[in-house]
Amino acid sequence: MECCESRTSLSITRRALLLGGASFAAWAYLPKFARAADGRDPRFVTIILRGALDGLATVAPVGDPDYADLHGSIALTRDGARPAIELDAFFALHPAMPQFARMYKDKHAAVVHAVATPYRERSHFDGQDVLESGFAGPGRVQSGWLNRALGALPRGERVMSGLGVGATTPLVLRGAAPTVSWAPVNLPQAADDTAMRLYELYRHRDPALATALSQGLQLDKIAARGDDMRARPKNGAGAMQLTARGVAKLMAEDDGPRIAALAFDGWDTHANEGGPVGRLAQLLSGLDAALGEFESGLGAHWRDTVIVIATEFGRTARINGTQGTDHGTGTVALLAGGAVNGGRVIADWPGLKAANLYQARDLAPTTDLRAILKGALHDHLGVSERVLASAVFPDSAMVKPAQGLVV
Amino acid sequence: MTRDPQAALVALHRFGFGARGGASGDFTNAASDPRGFVKVELARPAAALLEAPGLQPSPALAAVQYAYQFDLKQQREAAAKPAPETSAATMGASAKPETMPSVTGADVMKPDARLPPTKPPLNVIQKTYRAEALARIQRATLAECGFVERLVTFWSNHFCISANKGPLARIWAGAYEREAIRPHVLGRFADMLKAVEQHPAMLFFLDNQQSIGPNSQAGQRRKRGLNENLAREIMELHTLGVGSGYTQADVTSLARIITGWTFAGREGRLGVPGTFVFNVNAHEPGTQVLLGKNYPDTGVTQGEKALVDIARQPATAKFIATKLARHFVADDPPPRLVARLQDAFSKTDGDLKALALALIESDEAWQTPLNKMRSPYEFLIATGRLMARVPEDPGRYLSGLNILGQPLWTPAGPNGFADSNAVWAAPEEMKLRLDIAAQVSSRIGDSMDPREMLDLMAADAASSETRQTIARAETRQQAFALLLMSPEFQRR
Predict the structure, then answer these.
(1) Tell me: the pLDDT tens digits for B153-164?
(2) Which of A167, A204, A324 sits opposite B465 (nearest CB)?
(3) Fewer CB within 10 Å, N- or C-terminus of chain B?
(4) Chain B residues with CB-CB distance to A180 below 8 A
(5) Any idea where the domains of chain B sit in the sequence?
(6) Residue A240's domain spans which residues?
(7) SS3 for chain A, per residue?
């Protein structure tokens, strides 16, 4: 037994050495936030909902006279067995999101409605590329806007890298600025000594794999501290919660990442979308639980946190022939976190009359999502308007950052 | 004939599933005639077909699934009734106690009774999925070069469905590949396209069985309408590619054209349950305009003609050529290779065997270094081949694929699994591959010498650093894990 114990502690030391070397090299180039000067240590999280979220089902314009007819059998209502949660006189939140409702009431959450990226076609994959790349059109998939924002932050000793969540890093965080990644998984780990030997081989033969491996090895330790991360998610909703719990734990560390990007799949509700209960309700409930995990897991840092939830585009205003919705345009973006200037629905409401719909089928976009993202990056992380208009969201000078999103 | 070790590595890794262990002689054979080694499989008749004892056609599987769901419903209803004690007490002694033990007895006799009691027994849907997976994995493990099987996985991913859509999709996932993909992998693209879009699994996956022409009899009667999901993905993902010039109006037109393309359900009102049927009552009447051409309402052939025309569009040739070159050669494939493949596709009216040959004949496809990462499936199959282990159970493969982000027949969306180094060489992915490699290696016996395995896998194409790393490892197990993670094994 003694022999085994001492061998274990030796190998932990070895991996710590390996990682110490690797992370030192990477972290030397990492930025510090401008706002470290005023004593704030901001956290910023982006959650991409892949598949196109139905904004009209998430935050329903129950005050719009045309809504109930367009959304038909799946429309939310102010009354009934599962009423939508009133946000103001006009908008009501899906009943599967009680945590978000509470945050909204406490002015720590906000909704942006009738929002869209500059993309006006209806392909998921191109739409996600535009949303995540920050370019005005598809086809630019080398780097994401969050990575370029990270690269634009001042460099210094107060270090932080971006955390990509999942077996693969979402495009929004891919790029030149260093990132690390983590995914909840249940698997016995390779011995640290094997990892070190492989890292040495890669360093000599395949530097790209050396970089990837050294980054992949360093973070699961922190996430495993504390409660058990190994319970396997049973379904999409449970997986969202489990993932958020792990990420919050990593981000709550003093030397943990300050910026993270997550992607949740499954929002493509073409058929049997459901109303107050059903498929979309289950997904929203998972998202809501994930927000709750961020709030509790970040603890005191929640105060300095902004979470932006965005999707590639919306869905048709009128339900289709199969109790679902097809690909559309305008939708919602959600903001949550202690640093959000919340308790409001930000919308220049276009109306749902046939003449007001985009191409006579979709909620017309009246707010450019980039204005919201720019506003959050500017006010929360201190990225300058000039950099936002050029490097982060190229050719977007005409889209001004939204004011006052952050407390 | 000159011996070319680097070209042998290209033949085995870029186009195949890697060298088999044991006395296969794969590397030597590939080194003496790399192109011939790859091409020989294409000449075999029915090379892509897969038949194995116990694998059933889609309609039979639909019947199995319907029967299973019916049993479940019966059990739920039985459970909802008063408990046996209560009924015995109120109704007195009855035949009930006799029926109960026989049900239990049947359960114990199922083959899964040998599983540990903590695991619930597999249901018939999971059993089918695993049997189909096993047949596919065994085929790939035993194949000589594996080029045809690689083509099968390419096309299967191009026309993917997801087993997570529902029980029918899971029970059909393997049959769909056997019935719609494999017969046409060395045949014509237009035939594969038709087989795919008329297969019950695809119609179910992309909701077309729910899409109803608004002016059809059923549409008028039931106030239901179009679902454009399948039509859009046919154009965006299966043929023309996004941004190739079609419009929203074209998508809607195609959706109308293929209304009525459905499959017969449990009751068999429209035909044999689980078979493709054209339901004229759900079909939108009238002429439709698609990509500038009129398609009069000729019933099912309206859609079949449309698919034939879409398959012949230059955009389709370009889209397929690019995707194939990206899959086999490089994330940014050489433009000359793409042009050559596009040309081969167009000139032969989509002959996929000619397309595969054009790939193998081109010089661009043989350029080194090997830079693409193996996908998780390729990684795990190559591992099993090198170990010369033909699995009798797919469990380890399936869980490995889940962990590495490529669950079999279950991509996150209709665009299939990603095909780039950004995805398969991501940091978390590398860590997980290392953990898997260590796990696999922990099970190898002392009869395997990793230095000999390296010679079987790459011979003199292996780098001196890799050779040294393996030779200096602490244990055989560690050496084998390092071999599996070496650039030579991971890149293709």
Answers:
(1) 999 999 999 999
(2) A204
(3) N
(4) 427
(5) 188-329+332-349+358-368, 371-490
(6) 33-184+233-392
(7) CHHHHHHHHHHHHHHHHHHHHHHHHHHCCCECCHHHHHCCCCEEEEEEECCCCCHHHHEECCCCCCHHHHHHHHCCCCCCCCCCEECCCCCEECCCCHHHHHHHHCCCEEEEEEEECCCCCCCHHHHHHHHHHCCCCCCCCCCCHHHHHHHHCCECCCCCCEEEECCCCCHHHCCCCCEEEECCCCCCCCCHHHHHHHHHHHHHHCHHHHHHHHHHHHCHHHHHCCCCCCCCCCCHHHHHHHHHHHHHHHHHCCCCCCEEEEEECCCCCCCCCCCCCCHHHHHHHHHHHHHHHHHHHHHHHHHHEEEEEEECCCEECCCCCCCCCCECCCEEEEEECCCECCCEEECCCCCCCHHHCECCCECCCCEEHHHHHHHHHHHHHCCCHHHHHHHHCCCCCCCCCCCCCEC
